[in-house]
């Protein structure tokens, strides 16, 4: 059970200036540069992180390359790697509250969500891949008897991972778990506005016995250190979660450098579709509100477009507005808080700009729309609901990445499908219906990597998460994620 007094003890714990983690050591930026870490809880400076330079990134990549090449990690017996990864998961678990509170002070997520979604999820992910690492192996192909053909699986070498700010530990572990389990060495670039808990999680990896150089962290600005990682000739695979704009740049960097494989998870504008025959409209309304207001809407799979069948539209909008009452922006470090802060001032301004533009594009404000808790100095926003949202409106097409729900009515199944797919994205979706045939038809018709039926969210580590269209390529989670971090080598041997 989470305990408020333990959280209160940690909420003001001093945080010293942070450095990169390169070759197992804390290393300041080469030019001594730092970036202030602004807490979204009160707008105050929490501490500083190293403002990495291109040379810092090059040093981290060189450290990972050296560690890979001498086999200090990939050359270990699988059982030894497994033991270390289990120890790492145990240490994260033992320090879960400290990690969660540190993360909340940095990124603003409400602690109840953060505790389970961040260290909690990271522990599960790392254990999953530790358990799996000796269960993935090669094949002997069926060939002419005069030949022995083997397909070997090998680690790719050096993995670069660029992580966003919404769930740094969860998303970080989705990359680090399979990458390290497969025997690779890694350089991580956390987001400017959420580096602290990831740095601490990486320190725990060292403590667990991950050899120096195997896991490196370089902090700083995306267009400097992220770009240097993207352009490196020595990174073999680049994995990324974040915005489409940066995703495109990473592909360009790859094309301009060594053609490294680039895997992107780019968020979405996920349709959540409520048919009037939904088995439980109350539950559906609860899920609709939860899917957009948890973590103040800063969730890549958020159900940000609610499509409601016309004959229940008005009643359902009222139900969702009622369920939204359960989400009130509050102190993210209070266990009773249902919705935390927006991650940064920049993100808050962006959210409010979407809200300001929506009525001019025909949307009707049902609820919320404003900044709240200004007296704290932090970045808080009300849960916001718009109805009558035209399919071409910005809040129906662009990823707000904030607590803003866009509701649009539809007449029938055909229109629901057309609206659902009227987006450049294809990450998640949801369908509520009691009609099994319709559920399957919708599953087939919706162009998305995930379809929830009569629920929304909650998928565990056993299933892949990835998008289609401009939501990205490749998958995090599940055994499928291993494919990103391994190469296939064919051995063709004449006998
Ligand atoms: P972003 O894409 O700008 O940043 C994500 C990561 O990429 C950060 O670590 C950042 O430092 C790095 N980065 C930025 N510019 C880079 C560059 N030129 N080269 C290499 N790396 C670079 O995302 P953001 O500013 O944090 O948020 C902007 C939008 O991204 C949000 O509004 C939201 O739409 C989307 N987003 C999606 C997710 C998701 O889970 N899919 C998460 C966070 C943000």
List keywords for this structure.
15 helices; Aldehyde Dehydrogenase, Chain A, domain 1; 2 domains; binds nicotinamide-adenine-dinucleotide; 37% helix; alpha/beta; single chain; 495 residues; Aldehyde Dehydrogenase, Chain A, domain 2
- Taking pLDDT < 50 over at least 5 consecutive residues as the criterion, the unreliable ranges are none
Radius of gyration over C-alpha positions, nearest whole angstrom: 23 Å
Instruction: Report the CATH C-level class of the largest domain.
Output: Alpha Beta
Supply the helix-strand structural class: alpha/beta
Individual helix count: 15
Structure described in brief:
This protein is α/β, with parallel strands linked by helices.
Describe the secondary-structure layout:
Elements: H1 4-10, E1 20-22, E2 25-27, E3 34-38, E4 45-50, H2 54-69, H3 78-94, H4 96-107, H5 111-132, E5 139-140, E6 147-155, E7 158-162, H6 168-181, E8 185-189, H7 196-208, E9 215-217, H8 222-231, E10 237-241, H9 244-256, E11 261-265, E12 271-274, H10 281-293, E13 305-309, H11 313-324, H12 345-357, E14 364-367, E15 371-372, E16 380-381, E17 384-387, H13 394-397, E18 404-410, H14 413-420, E19 430-432, H15 436-445, E20 452-453, E21 486-494
Parallel strand pairs: 7-8, 7-10, 8-9, 10-11, 12-13, 12-19, 13-18, 17-18, 19-20
Antiparallel strand pairs: 1-2, 3-4, 5-6, 6-21, 14-17, 15-16
Helix pairs in contact: 2-8, 3-5, 3-7, 4-5, 4-7, 5-6, 10-11
Bound molecules: nicotinamide-adenine-dinucleotide.
């Amino acid at each position: 059970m989470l305990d408020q007094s333990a959280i209160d003890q940690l909420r003001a714990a001093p945080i010293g200036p942070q450095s990169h983690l390169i070759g197992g050591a804390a290393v300041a930026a080469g030019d001594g540069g730092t970036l202030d870490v602004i807490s979204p809880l009160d707008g105050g400076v929490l501490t500083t992180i190293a403002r990495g330079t291109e040379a810092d990134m090059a040093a981290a990549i060189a450290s990972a390359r050296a560690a890979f090449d001498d086999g200090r990690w990939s050359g270990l017996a699988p059982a030894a790697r497994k033991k270390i990864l289990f120890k790492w998961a145990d240490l994260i678990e033992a320090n879960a509250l400290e990690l969660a509170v540190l993360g909340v002070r940095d990124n603003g997520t409400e602690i109840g969500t953060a505790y389970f979604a961040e260290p909690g999820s990271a522990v599960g992910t790392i254990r999953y891949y530790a358990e799996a690492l000796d269960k993935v192996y090669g094949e002997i192909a069926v060939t002419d008897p005069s030949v022995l053909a083997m397909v070997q699986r090998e680690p790719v070498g050096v993995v670069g991972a660029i992580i966003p700010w919404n769930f740094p530990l969860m998303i970080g572990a989705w990359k680090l778990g399979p990458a390290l389990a497969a025997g690779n060495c890694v350089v991580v670039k956390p987001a400017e506005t959420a580096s602290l808990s990831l740095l601490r999680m990486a320190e725990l990896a060292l403590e667990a016995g991950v050899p120096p150089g195997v896991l490196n962290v370089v902090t700083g600005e995306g267009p400097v250190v992220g770009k240097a990682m993207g352009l490196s000739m020595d990174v073999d695979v680049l994995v990324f979660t974040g915005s489409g704009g940066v995703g495109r740049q990473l592909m360009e960097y790859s094309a301009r450098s060594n053609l490294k494989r680039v895997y992107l998870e780019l968020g979405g504008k996920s349709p959540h579709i409520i048919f009037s025959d939904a088995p439980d409209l109350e539950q559906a309304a609860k899920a609709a509100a939860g899917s957009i207001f948890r973590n103040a809407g800063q969730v890549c799979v958020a159900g940000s477009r609610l499509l409601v069948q016309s004959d229940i539209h008005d009643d359902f909008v009222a139900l969702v507005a009622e369920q939204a009452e359960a989400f009130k922006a509050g102190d993210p470090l209070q266990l009773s808080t249902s919705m935390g802060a927006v991650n940064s001032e920049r993100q808050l301004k962006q959210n409010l700009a979407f809200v300001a533009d929506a009525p001019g594009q025909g949307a009707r404000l049902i609820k919320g729309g404003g900044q709240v808790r200004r007296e704290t100095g932090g970045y808080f926003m009300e849960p916001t609901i718009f109805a009558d949202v035209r399919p071409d409106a910005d809040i129906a097409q662009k990823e707000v990445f904030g607590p803003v729900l866009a509701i649009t009515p539809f007449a029938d199944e055909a229109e629901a499908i057309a609206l659902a797919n009227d987006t450049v994205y294809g990450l998640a979706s949801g369908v509520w219906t009691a009609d099994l045939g319709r559920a399957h038809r919708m599953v087939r018709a919706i162009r998305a990597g995930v379809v929830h039926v009569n629920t929304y969210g909650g998928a565990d580590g056993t299933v892949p998460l990835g998008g289609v269209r401009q939501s990205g390529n490749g998958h995090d989670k599940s055994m499928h994620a291993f494919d990103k971090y391994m190469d296939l080598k064919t051995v063709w041997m004449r006998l």
